[in-house]
Design a protein that fits this description.
By secondary structure, the protein is of the alpha+beta class. It has helices at residues 80-89, 127-138, 180-185, 188-193; strands spanning 36-39, 45-48, 62-68, 73-76, 99-105, 144-148, 160-168, 171-175. The chain has four helices and eight strands, in the order E-E-E-E-H-E-H-E-E-E-H-H. The relative contact order is 0.19.
């Protein structure tokens, strides 16, 4: 691929080159993963640095949007690290993936009280069905439940809770979003461009 990145005949640099498009994530070593960029429709970008640090705090129920290689919207009792272990490493998991990219989305009051918790400014579709799935998980009938099997992996940046995660059988990387105060002050132009409402 690098050998093919040569200038065009008019000497303008080549802008992009697809080297692979099929099952790429599982074949990229985690040590080669660098910054992840969140780019708004207006071209403002925010670079996130990868870390291996994960909080083990379990603050109720969780909502995950899987980004690759599959795209379901999922609710779970598992914190992000346990969710990754369930999907990648649990031999009894019915849906085993060799690699995964996912984001944890905010549930607000629904994380503790899915039946009666206030929605506030949560922008999710089919909120009644989301509540039903959360209640089922909270009652312990299942620990993880798919809300929408073919959900489009699009979400407002303001709904990102703990960050974006990329993992394979080697391990898991966490791309945490900066704290809200830092987004408002240090990254104000990105924050405003992303129309993030806190």
């Amino acid at each position: 691929g690098i050998d093919r990145c040569i200038p065009h005949a008019d000497e303008t640099p080549k802008k992009s080159l697809n080297i692979s498009t099929y099952r790429v994530l599982e074949h990229v070593p985690l040590e080669h993963m660098r910054q992840l960029y969140l780019v708004t429709a207006y071209g403002q970008s925010l670079a996130l640095e990868p870390t291996n640090y994960f909080t083990n705090a379990d603050d109720g129920l969780h909502l995950y949007q899987e980004i690759a290689p599959v795209t379901p919207l999922v609710v779970s009792k598992h914190n992000p690290l346990n969710f990754y272990n369930f999907i990648i490493k649990d031999p009894e998991c019915m849906v085993h993936l060799p690699a995964i990219a996912f984001v944890e989305l905010a549930l607000g009051d629904l994380a503790k009280d899915p039946e009666f918790g206030a929605l506030k400014d949560l922008p999710y579709d089919q909120i009644h069905h989301l509540r039903e799935c959360l209640v089922e998980v909270k009652q312990g009938r299942v620990h993880t439940k798919i809300v929408n099997r073919h959900h489009t992996p699009e979400f407002p940046y303001r709904t990102i809770k703990s960050g974006i995660f990329v993992g394979n059988e080697e391990g898991l990387l966490h791309y945490p979003l900066p704290p809200r105060e830092e987004l408002r002050s240090k990254y104000y132009r990105w924050w405003r461009s992303a129309n993030v409402r806190f």
